[in-house]
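Might I ask for a little of your time on a matter of protein folding? Here, with my thanks, is the record as I have it:
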Amino acid sequence: MSHNEMKLIMENWREYCHGIDESTISVPALPAAGIIVTKQVIDGMMEMWKQYQTMKDPECRKDPEAKCGWRYSDKYFHCVAHCLSSMHGWGGKTISEIFGTAREMTDIIRKGDSDEAVSRDLIANNFGRIAAESGHCGECWKYIPAGLPELLWIVPGGKITDAHRSAVAKNTECNRDFMKMQGEEMPEHCRLKYVTY
C-alpha cells in the first residue's frame, strides 16, 4: 500500500466506517435471499480485508521494536473489522465467524501462536460482533493504543472527547490491564515500576 493510499484511508476512516449500506441489512423475500446473503458475505469479507490492510502500517511493521502509535493496535483492528463485517447482515456476521476462526487456526499452524494469543484475538473478534448489534463499532475503542492517530479512532457517540483522549493515553505498554487485554507481557522496564520495597 502506497503512502498516498494510506493517507487517503486515514483521512476518510471515520466517514467510511459510518457509511454502512442499510440495504444489505434488511431481510429480503425468499427468491432473492441467496443473492443478498452472497452480497453480505462479500461485503463482510471486504470490510475485514480493509481493516487488516489498514492495521499493517508499513513504518511500524518494519521494526517490531519501533516506538510508534501503530504498536498494540492489532486487537483494535480485529474488533473493528469483525464489527463492520457483522453490520452487513447475517452473511457478514457468518463470514466474520468463519474467517476469524480459520485465520486464528492458521496462525497456530503457520506462526506457532500460543493458545492465549489466539484466545485474545478471538475475544476481540467476538467483541466486535457484539458491538455490531448496537449498530456502532465505537465499543471497540477500549482497544485503542496510545499514539494511534485519532483519524483511525471510532468511539461511542462518534465524536472524540477529552475523556476519550485521556483514557486512550493510559493504554500503554506499562499499563498492566491494557497489556493483559492485548495478551502480552509487560516489558521489563515497566515491571520495575510495580516492584514494592
